């Protein structure tokens, strides 16, 4: 054994002979493998032959011979049959010419070509896999040592060069097989896009081939022939196709069709990548569709009459809007075009609401006021003014309702169609805020809406329903820019609710406050909370005082039962609670109280100050009311009701009580003139006239007679006397109150006044902020100071630039600030 | 490369097949060893998973995949046996197998080079390392043997210089360590003259040693 084995190792001289013998063996084996007769061949024998050649350092020769063999095989055996499949028709189509055949024939010839190419490729792969197995020792030792591409890689390159890039012999063009392949596949895809059924599997096989072939033997992943050749052509053809499709949709269809067609195309292309071509192209083709079908004509589709974005929003075409959102999101992450279109719609629709309300408002208001002036008939005189007011209030509620409806509409749309997109939410919020703030009365209306709900609206509603109302109110508050104006109105309305006991639920009031606290901040709600605190404190005071009086022992039938509200001056909007426009504090304070009342006031004051030394109590006659027991004596000589003594308990405003008490001291049938009453009571003229109207003109509680006896508002010169002949079926009568208790829309004058007051307040706030900033910064340019002030105030209101300038001037005058001379830009300095 | 420990070496995948070694149970292929075609009952799953060569031989559509037979007439049956032993158990022994009693075993200094050559042809990297280790140990005592020059001849004709840890290094190393004794011998001088690759390797090694 040793002999035979050792002789095997001797390197003989007949190396060439050895090589030729072994190559002969291998070559015939290669032929057999190509002809699918491998099962006759011994793997062991062939492997050993190539092993020996390599051991004897003849690897290079073997490698080259195998290559040569493959090249010859392609030229002699493979290409001729493929060329046969390339018909003139296919060449024509590839050249961009028109084929003279039907689509069906075209498809069949195309498929035949693909099948032929596919078969030769698959054969090649099978053969080369077997060849590689046999030549593996060469690959591992020779190729690795000499940095040569493996024989398999080389053979793939040969297929690329000798089949795909083989020129068409009979054609005068420069066409190669690859051109035909691209053209056929694109033609088939084109047919599928038109709705035909094609052999996807066949195309997929050819695509696999292109994915397995590379530009060079380095087999760089980015240089797959699929990417470097086919995909480029595919994307180019697709771009043209979608470009044309979009133009024809623009010409012949509506936005709705366009949306659906585009979506369908996305799905088709995605499916095509999965089943027909390669997932490598998925994003790129999507990009092409995005650019051609969406971006290029988006504005035109959005603007389409009757189907564009306006119509979609108007008619709640949620499906269209969802599609639109999806498509726009694909091409623009900021969704700019959609955002702009939505914003424009919100502002348009919102302005419509504003306009409609302003129009109704102005057409109704003066007419109603006139009614009030001229209403003469006794029963009709049932307060035409509140009627006017309630109409105006209805307008406010209507405005709020419509705004909320619009908000609901867009909210629903946002949830259903816009994927709760944050960018769009911000944009919508901004647009809502824009048109709401364009409406001059937004603060007042929103506060009225809340007022209305807290008074009546929430009656009989469930907690969830109330929550919903509060949510809506909160949403609206969020939009309002001038929070200070809103606060002013809210305080005014709240004061009325509290003092007149109109609030439906203290609990809901508190909820509303805490919501505003979250939404706007502590500073906003402190005073409101103070108002509630005062109310609670007052209740304790009232019952404490009662106990105190009872314990004094000397029970007096004439003792007046006192219910009191002690209001902290700063918390309550005194100006807007007063019953007239008199601003002078003196007049109001100096109402002359009757002796009984003064005694009562002193008694309470003594009780109140026992534990609260140093406080000042001011009695506000324009607020509150009193129950007065009146006795109407029997009128001699009269029968029936008038023939008996009548007792009534009449509830009148505090001023009413002061006036009526004057008549207690009067001799029978004597009268008092308007001037006399005013002189004795010091009640402001307008309040006096109003209260006398209640007591001497309106029938319900006409306990005084007026001379002259007409329906006009009492004025100086009129005389008043005790109406002995007063009758009423009710024992307890509530004198009709003309105004005060009802929160209504302000008239133009009132409104102007509110704004003035607000501006005055703003001026002070701006002063404070400027001084605070300058104190900290010492020196600041005009520009920076303005920016800083605006940002600090943004939570409360948007300051007027003119006002800010005036405030600065005033601060300079008052020597808080000075201008820095010779500064490049206008600059201010703080003066300590 | 895992260090090869000649005795008690275990290879997780190898030991599992110990009991199948030349066991006709489950056997689905037969390997014929040497000119006398001594049959060896083998298993596709073991051969195919442990050795790329057999994987190709039985899976590529050639005759062997159909007949389930493969014969190695030109190779030493003992060397083949040792390779199979390694494939099934992860190691092989110096002792000849009783199954092959009819065949004389390879000479001592040819045992490992032949295992190495087969391992190289079959592309079993780990076995090449094991054979080298065993050969290196053996040479520590047997470098003086008269068969060493012939052994070197065979090593150089059945290996290539691709592997850095090739068996050629083992040989050159052994010769270099004992160059005073060996290079005086006629057969060695003849060997140097005859096998150019060996001469080059030896000169390079000695030059390196001097530095």
Précis, in short:
With 832 residues, chain A is mainly alpha-helical. Chain A has 33 helices and 9 strands. In chain A, the strands form 3 sheets. In chain A, strands 1-2-6 form a 3-stranded mixed β-sheet. A 3-stranded antiparallel β-sheet of chain A has the order 3-5-4.
For the record, the CATH class of the largest domain in chain A is: Mainly Alpha
The pair of chains with the biggest contact is: A-B, 32 and 35 residues
Total helical segments of chain A: 33
Distance separating the two termini of chain A: 117 Å
Under CATH, the topology of the largest domain in chain B can be stated as: Potassium Channel Kv1.1, Chain A
Can you tell me the overall shape of chain A?
elongated
Quaternary class: heterodimer
Shape of chain B: elongated
Radius of gyration of chain B: 18 Å
Topology-level CATH name of the largest domain in chain A:
5 helical Cullin repeat like
Rounded radius of gyration of chain A (Å)? 49 Å
Contiguous uncertain segments of 5+ residues of chain B? 1-11
What is the count of structural domains of chain A? Answer: 5
Can you walk through the features of this model?
The complex is a heterodimer of chains A (832) and B (211). Chain A folds into five domains: 14-223, Up-down Bundle (5 helical Cullin repeat like), CATH 1.20.1310; 239-331, no CATH class; 441-559, Up-down Bundle (5 helical Cullin repeat like); 578-734, 2-Layer Sandwich (Ribosomal Protein S5, domain 2), CATH 3.30.230; 748-830, Arc Repressor Mutant, subunit A (Orthogonal Bundle), CATH 1.10.10.10. Chain A is built from 33 helices and nine strands. In chain A, helix 4 runs parallel beside helix 8 (151-164) and helix 31 (748-777) crosses helix 33 (801-813). By secondary structure, chain A is mostly helical. Chain A has a three-stranded mixed β-sheet. Chain A starts with a helix and ends with a strand. Chain B has 211 residues and is mostly helical. Chain B has two domains: 1-134, 2-Layer Sandwich (Potassium Channel Kv1.1, Chain A), CATH 3.30.710; 143-211, no CATH class. A three-stranded mixed β-sheet of chain B has the order 2-1-3. In chain B, helix 6 runs parallel beside helix 8, helix 7 (125-142) packs parallel to helix 9 (167-177) and helix 9 (167-177) crosses helix 12. Chain B is elongated and about 55 Å long. Chain B starts with 11 loop residues before the first helix and ends with a helix. Mean pLDDT of chain B is 86; it is low at 1-11. The interface between A and B is medium-sized, with 32 and 35 residues.
